[in-house]
Each structure stands twice: as structure tokens, then as C-alpha cells.
Specification:
4 helices, 2 strands, mainly alpha, two-stranded antiparallel ribbon, 11% strand
């Protein structure tokens, strides 16, 4: 797998990343810890105090988490 887009996300991180696809007004409450971890991984950026997907985060959503692929197999 490509190291650029291969992230070993936990289920909670994955759910938080997926939730960020929704418009801000439609999002449920996000875990600050999960958002911080995704920011540290470069998948989310804070823009004016609101978490938003980065280009890398969008690529991960399209490709999926390698850990989740293992569970599905």
C-alpha cells in the first residue's frame, strides 16, 4: 500500500472522518480527541475553529482504512 494514503485508523477515527463529510449544521457532536488525532495525522485541518477534511483526508475516505479492509475480508 502507498504510505501516503495508508492510515491505520481506529473505528472511532474512521467514524469521525466520515462524519466530516456532512455539512457543519448536520454533524453530530464530534470527539475532540478523535479530531485532534486526525489533525495530527494530516487528515483534518482546523479552519476558523471548525474541523475540515484535508485533501489527504478525502483520499483516505475514498480508499478506506487498511484496518477496516482487513475486517471486511
Amino acid at each position: 500500500m502507498n504510505a501516503e494514503t495508508d492510515h491505520d485508523l481506529t473505528q472511532d477515527q474512521w467514524e469521525t472522518l466520515k462524519a466530516l463529510r456532512l455539512p457543519v449544521r448536520e454533524r453530530r457532536r464530534l470527539s475532540g480527541l478523535m479530531v485532534d488525532q486526525l489533525v495530527a495525522a494530516g487528515l483534518v485541518a482546523m479552519i476558523e475553529g471548525t474541523p475540515a477534511l484535508t485533501q489527504a483526508g478525502r483520499k483516505v475516505l475514498i480508499r478506506g482504512s487498511s484496518r477496516l479492509l482487513d475486517v471486511a475480508a
